[in-house]
User: Fold Beta-ketoacyl-[acyl-carrier-protein] synthase III from Dasania phycosphaerae.
Amino acid sequence: MRYANITGWGKCLPPAILSNDDLATLLDTNDEWITTRTGMKERRISHVPVSSLATVAAARALACAGKQATDVELIIFGSTTFDEMCPNAASNVQKQLGAANAACMDVNTACTSGMYALTVATAMIKSGVVNNAIVIGAEVISTVMDWSNRNVAVLFGDGAGAFYLQADAQECGVIAESLGCYGESREILAVNGWGLKEAKNAVINNQLHWAFEGQEIFKKAVSGMDQACQKVLAKSEINADQIDLVVPHQANLRIIDTLAKRLKLPRDKVFINIQRYGNMSAATAPVALVEAIEEGRVKPNSLVLMPAFGGGLTWSAHLLRWGERTHSLGESDVELAPCNKTALELIRPN
Ligand SMILES: CC(C)(COP(=O)(O)OP(=O)(O)OC[C@H]1O[C@@H](n2cnc3c(N)ncnc32)[C@H](O)[C@@H]1OP(=O)(O)O)[C@@H](O)C(=O)NCCC(=O)NCCS
Assistant:
């Protein structure tokens, strides 16, 4: 039996920080409301396209695994905010990394994109199509944000996380997952005006309109992630109390707490970084796992449960058996271009 061990991990957070107080200068909101209703304190705003964040995160994951770019056989890029639809975004990462031997594909399932990408890469390694892969979850959601709508503008941020996966004979990496979608509710979380169906120049003409039924999304997020977790646990014959760490999608602290309660798992088994980044959509779960490893929360052979949720409305849960290594084998010298603007300057129209 072949498994897909995660042997490299990396993240890239753009440096410009948008605080709750910054948002209060633009919108009728305040730090107290955002903190108590969501758990968020600040988020990042990117000064570069999503492929640049993804390339830096991928280069860090490669260095962490002690691999060269030319070793890579597959790049899967999970996102909703691709710089362009054709050519795909994974090919841009291939070019920037110099990973000339890699096949390249994009995956879009909104906030769960990084986790769905992890499933695709794991399956392709397990089935022998490739021996290794880079998986990326990256998002520059600030480019499609309606900065006049307080219902959504306070909730999101930009970032990227990446993993290097390689074939392994030991049981490790993703050992079970459950994926699904509440397609009948797809309209309750949508960016209207974006895509070929709508006016071609909606982005340019500032005609994007977010449909966002927060309370309905909240309920579906909890039920989707709960059922995905239950299915994964049943499939792998593991009890919730055997889980060492839950690394969930970070859309709202109250969603995370409700889910943990349903799973009967204490808060100290749940990794939380929502206060630093808000919801980075496809990048959220990957960055959270990278930070959980960096902070020593993931130990050799840990069982890690990763529930996620996003537009679609897609939901998922992945059960990971971590391998032996939790330290990096190397560091990358690939860096983002410097940023000379504040987050508020970056989101203000020219
Ligand atoms: C969006 C969300 C934080 C809103 O929290 P909530 O407790 O449901 O808040 P409500 O929508 O009921 O709004 C409560 C009040 O706060 C107000 N409010 C909404 N956004 C606000 C903001 N940014 N600042 C201040 N007040 C705000 C509302 O207008 C409402 O006022 P009213 O009572 O006078 O009508 C919450 O529903 C949520 O997290 N939903 C899921 C979102 C999600 O997960 N999205 C991503 C999926 S990947």
